[in-house]
Amino acid sequence: MKKLSLIFLFSIFAMFLNAQSDVYLKVKKAIQENYPEISLENKLIAINNWSSNNQESREANKEFNRIYKIYEFAKLKGGLKGLVCVSINNEGDAASIILNKDGASKLLQLNKIEISTPNSNVVFDDKGNEVYKNISSDKIFESINKLITR
Dihedrals φ, ψ of 129, to 5°? Predict the structure, then answer.
């Protein structure tokens, strides 16, 4: 009986380790609602949660915009059909103006998505597994470049 209980507990624990992130599910749903023309099948999803008063997060927006233009349709590990980059800001409509002024107009803009860690970024593979988290803006290109498949 103890072995059976132990196996059951272990299997429940293993399921939680492989569960998709809540952030991934929220963002994927929001993209499908707001940008139905964007296909997320076999694509990496890069998310930058930023604020207008944090310069590092704004620089990350610029880098994510740049890699989105370069790797949108590239074959990448965890996303054989490319990459989608998302910018999340809950400050309102003024954030869109700032984003465009910074030159990050390609990013998909989402608002009103609650994420517990402000000024952070994360990259998910097509299965919802975390690939990278909190990449500094100067390492974003390098990190995504490592995912190229040959």
Answer: -85, 140
Q: List pLDDT tens digits, range 70-89.
A: 999 999 999 999 999 999 98
Q: What single DSSP character describes residue 47?
A: E
Helix (H) or strand (E) holding 77: none
Structure-token pair, residue 27:
């963002």
Which one-letter DSSP state was computed for residue 111?
A: -
In terms of DSSP bridges, do strands 120-124 and 130-133 run parallel, antiparallel, or are they unpaired? antiparallel
Secondary structure E strands in 14-79: 44-49
Helix (H, G, I), strand (E, B) or coil at 86: strand
Q: Measure Cα distances from 65 to 83, 109, 137 in Å.
A: 11, 11, 11
